[in-house]
């Protein structure tokens, strides 16, 4: 199955005091590298955010304005997608695996999104038919991923291993680290 991956990594991480969230380590490597490892078969790895080491084959793009939010970031990233399917992912998913991404891609008609243990859609943990996502973006002028993606009625997947868990706060980061083991010399 041919797909590209679009990883949104340009947020301001306000709840983490502005730290470089995608660069924070969990399980011995930066979060963004964990997400990149979950898409090993992607034709293109598109990262919307600043350039960073550890991703030599990534295509780096920036939203306008930088830090403008997930919808402008998605617009920027989608411009680099050439495959019929795209995995749309946050850069801070410490438990995401290639198996989770594969399940999303297989269910993406027109899209599939992970749901958390409370049944809430996690819009930055999904896969979409590129053409459908492009059409939706062309007619959408809002700022909310929910407003953009929910009307597409994606498949909702609840998968084991908490692949939807993201590290928005220090408590989230500490929880992820406690489940993956300590990281020496961080912070």
From TrEMBL:
Matching PANTHER family: MOLYBDENUM COFACTOR GUANYLYLTRANSFERASE (PTHR19136:SF81)
Listed name of the protein: MobA-like NTP transferase domain-containing protein
Record carries keyword Amino-acid biosynthesis: no
Domain MobA-like NTP transferase: 5-146
Organism per entry: Streptosporangium pseudovulgare
Source species, domain of life: Bacteria
UniProt cross-references to InterPro entries, sorted A to Z: MobA-like_NTP_Trfase, Molybde_CF_guanTrfase, Nucleotide-diphossugar_trans
Keywords: Cytoplasm, GTP-binding, Magnesium, Metal-binding, Molybdenum cofactor biosynthesis, Nucleotide-binding, Transferase
